[in-house]
Amino acid sequence: MTTPARSRGSGSLVPSGLAQVGIAAAALASTACGGTPKTPQVVPQAANAHLIDSQGRETGTASVLLSKGGGLLVLKLWGVAPGVHGLHLHTTGMCDPPGFLSADAHYNPQKRQHGSRNPQGPHAGDLPNVVARGDSTVDTTLAIPADLVRAIGSGAAAKALVVHAGPDDLKTDPSGNSGPRIACGVLQR
Fold first, then answer.
1. Are residues 22 and 62 in the same domain?
2. Nearest Cα to 103, choosing from 23, 161, 16?
3. What confidence tens digit (pLDDT) does each residue in 80-136 have?
4. In terms of Cα–Cα distance, which of 133, 160, 145 is closest to 62?
5. CA-to-CA distance for 163 and 130, rounded, in angstroms?
6. Do residues 3 and 93 share a domain?
7. Taking a C-beta distance cutoff of 8 angstroms, is the pair 168, 178 a contact?
8. Is residue 57 within a helix (H) or strand (E), and if so which, with residue range?
9. How far is the C-alpha of 72 from the C-alpha of 97, rounded, in Å?
10. Sheet (strand 181-187) strand order
11. For the chain, what is the domain count?
12. Which of 73, 105, 121, 136 is deepest in the core (most CB within 10 A)?
């Protein structure tokens, strides 16, 4: 039977054989890469949400992670009809089913028109379409600008992340002909 031994620097108990393997692996990784290994970084989470469907059942999660250029929106949905769906950040952090009208309009502080293909657009809250696979799931990560990350607050400053039934045409005001709101989550810090 292996007796526990303290691993250097960690203060935790690990079997002595595992401590030696871990030290050897770290040394090998350092030399294999031609330098000193970088300390792993934890990406700070800026905001998160649990999305619900029109019946009030949980249908997904969203997290905003900070990145050098702004943020990353990590979106996971289930129970969504296969196909393309519009995705928008809305002004008000409320999600009252069934129609989620409490989320109000798209986040649009510059008072522009909807869509990246609209010469007078886009709204700041216009996000790319997402695709639900044949198993009715979405698992995607989208880059979002720093201004949008900063706009997400807590309480009254929270925003709503809304999924629509159809694709956003990226040009028609006010919501790209993307159809009814089918899922919503209060995105907040």
1. no
2. 161
3. 999 999 999 999 999 999 999 999 999 999 999 999 999 999 999 999 999 999 999
4. 160
5. 9
6. no
7. yes
8. none
9. 27
10. 126-132, 83-90, 159-164, 181-187, 45-53, 58-67, 70-78, 137-145
11. 2
12. 73
Residues ≥6 apart with Cβ < 8 Å to 150? none
Six-digit token string for 18: 């595992």
Pair 179, 165: CB distance under 8 Å: yes
Query: pTM above the 0.85 mark?
Result: no
Which CATH number is 73's domain given? 2.60.40.200
Instruction: Considering only the C-alpha atoms of the chain, give the largest distance between any 2 of them, rounded to a whole number of Å.
Output: 72
Q: For the chain, what percent of residues have pLDDT higher than 90?
A: 70
Q: Could you tell me if 29 and 62 lie in one domain? A: no
Q: What does the pLDDT look like over 127-164, one tens digit per residue?
A: 999 999 999 999 999 999 999 999 999 999 999 999 99
Would residue 52 be called left, alpha or beta, if left means φ above 0 and alpha means ψ between -120 and 50 degrees?
beta
88 and 181: one domain? yes
- One-letter-per-residue 3-state SS of 98-158: CCCHHHCCECCCCCCCCCCCCCCCCCCCEEEEEEECCCCEEEEEEEEEHHHHHHCCCHHHC
Sequence letter at residue 124: A
CA dihedral 71, 72, 78, 84 (to 10 degrees): 100
